[in-house]
Structure to design on (426 residues):
């Protein structure tokens, strides 16, 4: 199929995420991908600044990850996980328990980040049910984003979480103000007043607090104080409320720590992982919890956890996840993240001088240019492609989350393209 025909058929039949059918917004056909580059069907090559929504941390078409998929395919592509098990899933569960905070000992697999959050919320509710207490609400944060399914939508910021259309049909949750102290700043008692008030007033009905550690992702790309996270853990302990950490975006090194919770040296009661878990090869997610929670649920009515995805623990996904984690841990990933952080700081710095730019901020392998007004996606997306890069802004945010393997020259070229496009559009 030639590029023109592909686009014509795409426009007729395919509904893309967060878009209207036949909207006329630009769509660019990809023919192949290698390393940090996308090759379009029309022949152009683009440096990918998004790592395909943050998950392709090792780059595209990696031979080790390819081999893991191919080897597993020779044995079995899929088998149900109800009443059956297999080595890739067991190995992956053991590995996640070894790498994650020490208190997390039980692993439940699912097939997307949003579902990992749904699983976490159901775990929390069922845990309290097993203890004979009706706790079914959640305390979340403004500027939070946890996914697009119904439970996950209910704990996203009602305004910035992109789900206001559904507000009348979602469970009514509680929202504390977004953390005010920035990353690296102290968190005072005054910063915690509103959160503390809400937690104290509603502790008896709360199943859990849910938050994104250190980095609030699609709700605003905000970086906040590790001391804030420490205070939340202490307050949850004091009021006997579970803490859910959504590390779907931050897990596996993105912030400079393997898990963002490590910045605060805290352990959540439930941890959600996804995105980079398989190195971007297949959809897979995991929800980890403590022995106390899993055994409380398992030992009381109805005597089981009430969830079971069809493609849970898909063998190929588990196999490539094991290979991806091994590849990450065997690499100098911390040094690579520091190098990317330095490159983003230098490369995006000129944007601070542009009219209409509110702030430029960088943490680990995340670079953000926050604008005062939302971008015009129809024009700016084409401009980035014409500049030779793939960058997908949303709202007021133009951000970069490159693959960890990106070299300095490509990173400099990527940042220079962002500076050029924003200079023309500022």
């Amino acid at each position: 199929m030639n590029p023109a025909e592909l686009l014509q058929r795409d426009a007729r039949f395919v509904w893309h995420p967060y878009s209207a059918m036949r909207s006329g917004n630009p769509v660019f056909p990809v023919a192949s991908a290698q390393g940090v580059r996308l090759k379009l069907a029309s022949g152009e090559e683009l440096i990918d600044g998004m790592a395909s929504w943050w998950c392709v941390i090792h780059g595209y078409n990696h031979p080790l990850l390819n081999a893991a998929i191919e080897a597993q395919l020779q044995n079995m592509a899929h088998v149900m996980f109800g009443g059956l098990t297999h080595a890739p899933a067991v190995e992956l569960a053991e590995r996640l328990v070894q790498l994650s905070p020490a208190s997390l000992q039980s692993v439940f697999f699912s097939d997307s980040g949003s579902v990992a959050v749904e699983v976490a919320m159901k775990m929390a509710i069922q845990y309290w049910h097993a203890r004979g207490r009706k706790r079914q609400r959640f305390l979340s944060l403004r500027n939070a984003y946890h996914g697009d399914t119904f439970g996950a939508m209910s704990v996203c910021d009602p305004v910035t979480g992109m789900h206001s259309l559904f507000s009348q049909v979602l469970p009514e949750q509680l929202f504390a103000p977004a953390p005010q102290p920035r990353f690296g700043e102290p968190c005072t008692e005054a910063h915690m007043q509103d959160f503390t008030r809400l937690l104290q007033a509603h502790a008896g009905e709360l199943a859990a607090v849910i938050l994104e550690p250190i980095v609030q992702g699609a709700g605003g790309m905000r970086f906040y104080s590790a001391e804030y996270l420490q205070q939340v853990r202490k307050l949850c302990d004091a009021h006997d409320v579970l803490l859910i950490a959504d590390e779907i975006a931050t897990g596996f090194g993105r912030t400079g720590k393997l898990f963002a919770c490590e910045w605060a040296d805290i352990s959540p009661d439930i941890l959600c992982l996804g995105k980079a878990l398989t190195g971007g090869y297949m959809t897979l997610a995991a929800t980890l919890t403590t022995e106390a929670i899993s055994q409380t649920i398992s030992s009381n009515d109805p005597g089981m956890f009430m969830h079971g995805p069809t493609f849970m623990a898909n063998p190929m996904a588990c196999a490539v996840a094991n290979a991806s984690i091994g590849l990450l841990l065997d690499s100098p990933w911390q040094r690579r993240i520091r190098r990317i952080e330095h490159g983003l700081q230098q490369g995006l710095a000129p944007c601070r001088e542009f009219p209409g730019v509110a702030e430029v901020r960088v943490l680990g392998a995340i670079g953000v240019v926050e604008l005062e007004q939302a971008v015009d996606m129809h024009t700016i997306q084409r401009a980035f492609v014409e500049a030779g890069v793939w960058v997908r802004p949303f709202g007021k945010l133009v951000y970069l989350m490159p693959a960890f393997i990106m070299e300095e020259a490509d990173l400099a070229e990527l940042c220079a393209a962002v500076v050029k496009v924003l200079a023309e559009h500022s």
